[in-house]
Design a protein that fits this description.
This protein is of the alpha/beta class. Among the domains are: 1-191, Rossmann fold; 428-530, 2-Layer Sandwich (GMP Synthetase, Chain A, domain 3), CATH 3.30.300. The chain has 17 helices and 25 strands. The strands form 6 sheets. Strands 7-6-5-3-4-8-9 form a 7-stranded mixed beta sheet, with helices on both faces. Helix 2 (36-52) crosses helix 3 (69-80) and helix 7 (192-206) packs across helix 9 (234-240). The protein starts with 14 loop residues before the first helix and ends with a helix. The model has no long low-confidence stretch (mean pLDDT 94). Bound molecules: adenosine monophosphate (AMP).
Length: 532
Amino acid sequence: MTAHAYPLLIKQILDAPLAHAPGQRIIDAEGMQYDYRTFADRIGRAAGALRALGAGEGSVVAVLDWDSHRYLECFFAVPMIGATLHTVNIRLSPEQVLYTINHAGDDLILCHADFLPMLSGIAARIERPWRLVILGDEAAVPDTLPSEGGYEALLARADPVREFPDLDENTRATLFYTTGTTGDPKGVTYSHRQLVLHTLGVAAGLGPIPGGGLNRGDVYMPITPLFHVHGWGIPYVATLMGLKQVYPGRYDPARLLGLIAEHDVTFSHCVPTILSMLLDAPEAEGTELGRWKVVIGGSALPEGLARRALQRGIDVHAAYGMSETCPFLTVADMMASRDPDAPANLRTATGKPVPMVRIRVVDAEMNDVPPGGTATGEIVARAPWLTQAYLRNEAGTDDLWRGGWLHTGDVGFLDDQGTLRITDRLKDVIKSGGEWVSSLALESLASTVDGVSEVAAIGIADPTWGERPLLVVVVGGDPAGIRDRLHAAFGQAVARGALSKWAVPERIEFLDSLPKTSVGKLDKKALRRRFA
Ligand code: AMP
């Protein structure tokens, strides 16, 4: 009866770095630098300041910020007092931001000065009483906003929290919104227990890779916005490991490359378009990237991009997950890829489940699609960290969890090595003459053609075949003869049996740039509208 039932809580993530690396630094692009002792002290102060403003169990605290050390402090301080951290997607339209603030029921909004004009525009339509804190120093705030002043001033005079409560581990810790192709944004939540288990699972998956992965010698810099699935949860992992961490603020290629050089950053993660943008930046030429490990997620890692990264000495791997999965489900095989004879597509494959994750590929009746063949099915998952419900959205939740497995909406297969390979999103599949054409396979192949900077394959209506693939290309290098090179590459792929003849797109369009979603992924919906 006296044994302690230890709840899994975010506050415990902080214990390890304070024991092992108290002097290690956390750096912010704005110039703030401090060690983990100061970090923990500031979390205690932030918690005290939030409590003084009425936040605590049951309240919702929203953050609108670039990737900053203050955001990282909120990752801890807000849930540690029992409140929910709402990480607002600052790239949504003001109307969508307003929708999420009202749906979440935010009590306090912590907002960087850059987003005050947007917030002012929607403030009158925020339904609940709310209060504002400016993230940073005091800023000139319009009278119409219920400002409590600047975060730094509040921390300076706060009564710090030294002992955080032993909450129920199932207490809701975080909330954010994912935008689907239709309907309103959906609220996704995670508990303390889920975030702790995700942190441990990802650390166990990435940690034990000799010379690779993510380990105590690394310097970490996220290049995934912290509002996108808690920066893919890696800020919690990096904190647990007591790593030197660099928070880059607003993304700017020259600045990001400068920070990599200045702080010897060795580990980052981002979507493919960001890596491509960094490699294209003029500053990339003179930046040493040979010690940089990058995990690419959010979209498939095209083979052409992986090759460009490898040529620069970057240790690049794909990972797979989604907003509803905290997000990690699988990571490319980082051990096997170290073998010099390993095929390059081991790095771009969606990979194998991280510890504690179970993956199946199923048909419409939830029967397993046999692995190793050519048949594809929907990827479904179970893990201790999958969102249990969309916030106040029963129909959406039932659909997500049909048959007790989380439905990813992604299509793929398990190859004969048990490696997951995604071929498409269900809503992006191209169906031509009754057969599925993998848009990701077409994109990956086209990405290896000289002069192709970005590429998207979409299905467009066709009177004979139902749909035909259309390739949309952004030219980066020499445009002369690019159409012929693309046709030749597809012809060769057909000749060696890598592509079916009917999958080859006959129509290729060129654009100056491709539309992107709020998290920097290809916006295929916009492309389909354009070429409908
Ligand atoms: P989000 O909820 O915005 O993070 O988007 C999740 C979706 O991104 C997944 O359902 C996939 O369609 C896609 N995605 C993420 N990682 C990968 C990957 N490695 N390969 C292919 N698609 C991916």
